[in-house]
Each structure stands twice: as C-alpha cells, then as structure tokens.
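Subject line: Sequence and fold of a protein, written as structure tokens
Area: Proteins and the way their chains fold up in space.
Start of record: The labelled sequence and token lines come straight after this line.
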Amino acid sequence: MSLRVQLLLIIAGKDFYELHSSRVKTRNTHGTGCSLASCIAAELAKGSPMLSAVKVAKRFIETALDYSKDLVIGNGPQGPFDHLLRLKNTSCRQEAFNPSDLFLYAVTDSGMNKKWGRSITDAVKSAIEGGATIIQLREKDADTGEFLEAARACLKICRPHGVPLLVNDRIDIALACDADGVHVGQSDMPARVARTLLGPEKIIGVSCKTPQHAQQAWIDGADYIGCGGVYPTNTKANNLTVGLDGLKTVCLSSKLPVVAIGGIGISNASDVMRLGVPNLKGVAVVSALFDRECVTTEDQEVTCCAKGDAMNSKMENEELQVRVFLIVTRI
C-alpha cells in the first residue's frame, strides 16, 4: 500500500490550488485524514491563512507518513499513522518543556574553545559539572559532518545527566542526532516549519527583538524566546540594541517565557532581573562561561551570584520568578 498527499483547495469560491507530494509506500495510513483536518484546524486557530494552514498540515502528514512507514504494529491490512512521531522513538525527551528547568543556559562557541585549547565535549562536560541545566550547541563554522559528530558526542554527555541539548539553527542536525530541540533566529528556518519537522515534543526557541516577532513566535509554536541585545556587545556584529525598555516591551507582549540576551554580565544582570516582568525568566550572560580558562569554576561562581540575586528578588516580589540563563556566545 502507498499513499500520496494530494489536495485540491478552493478558497472563497474563487482561488484554486492543487498541492502535490511524492508517494510514500506504507501500510500505516490509519488516521491520516483526521490528523490532516485537525492540523489544518489548529493552524487556523493560531491565526494562519487558509493556504498556509493547509501547506503546513500537508507537510506534517508527509513527514509523519515517511517517519512511520516501516513500523509494524498489529496484523491487519492497515497500520496506525504515527501522528506524534513517537511510536518507534524511545530516546526522545519524556517531559514537556518547563522554563524552570532552564536555570543555567550554556551555549558553546568553537572560537572560544579553540582559544582555551578545549574540545567541544570537554567544554560541555565542564559546563554541566559547573551547574548548567541546558546546553545549546552553536557551531557556525563547522561543516555538516563535523557538526553532526559533535552533536552526537555532546548528546552522550547530556543525556545521562538529564540535561537537554539544543542545536542552534540546524534543524537537520537536530533531527539526525535526536537532539532535544533547536534555537532559531529571524533569518533561519521559521519556527512553524521547524515545529512541523521536529514534532510536538521538541524544544524550540526563537530570537526576537520586537513585539511582532514575539507574537509570531507564539503563533508558530515556539516554547520560549530570546530577546536582545539588551546592551551593546562585541560578540555579534551589527546587532541591534533594544535596551531595557525594548526588553520590557517584548516581555509584556509575549505569551512565552523570555530570556534576555546581549551584553549582560554580573555587573548589570540585576538591573535586568529587576524589571519585574513575570515572564522574564532569566538573563543571557555572554562569554561569561566558555571564554574563561576554567569553565566549571566560572559556572559555579556565576551560579552562586545568580541564586543570590534571584533570592533577593523573590523576597522583594514573590510573584517574580527569576531564572538566570548563561548564554556564553552570540545568539
């Protein structure tokens, strides 16, 4: 048995679209129609136009069909359509995204590791030993094979410690190594497409500078947003500075947890944390971790400082939950 997703779409009785796809040879087609309709309805509920909603739903069905085409469940002529992309994968993240788990957010940088003579695995291991609770793998200069090898090696370190591993930008790398999620920028693959490809359980973060960016990230199914640069920084060229006022504006317009990014260090982190916006869950301390000789020591020292600031803020305002994310490179 094989199935090809072919759709005829008529909008408002005048616009006609014919959407085709390649044929997927599989017996696991039970539930494709209901899943297609549900996905279209969900996209429309998020504010997508009809044509866009249908295209996203179509792509999701194609991806899920191909993913589950070789599954063997039961003895009947028709098998289940794996709409959650989870029946054959037992290594994916078991729990839903929880912003409170992101207390220390460390992002790798190959340039800094090279400067201090560290391998990527040594850097990740040291960061986790120092208290990092999530790792973002950012390797802008690595080729695909090298990046994939590094991601798989880092995943072997992160998984036993229960530390999620996110991949910066590269959806293909995240899929190939079964990472826990991705972080994308405004010029990268849209979060909506990333969600379709990665499935519902993976973590997706989006860099945002405006309320419009934040609103779109929520519509597209992101889990959190990064907002910045809050202060001027040398770690990313031509990076627009939004300032504390811009950060607060984005936070107030966002339905998602927010992490502040850009030019933030121990000297000004408390100013950011005192904005008093409930969904501002932490700050990004650029280069404060990996651009040091001893990653573990720096990690522990900033953690102690962050915990102290968080405790003081909580005492001042019990409704303000402060979490510090350590971003140690550009985002």
Q: What stands out?
A: Residues 2-67 form one domain. The chain has eleven helices and twelve strands. Residues 90-94, 313-331 have pLDDT under 50 and may be disordered. The longest helix spans residues 295-316.
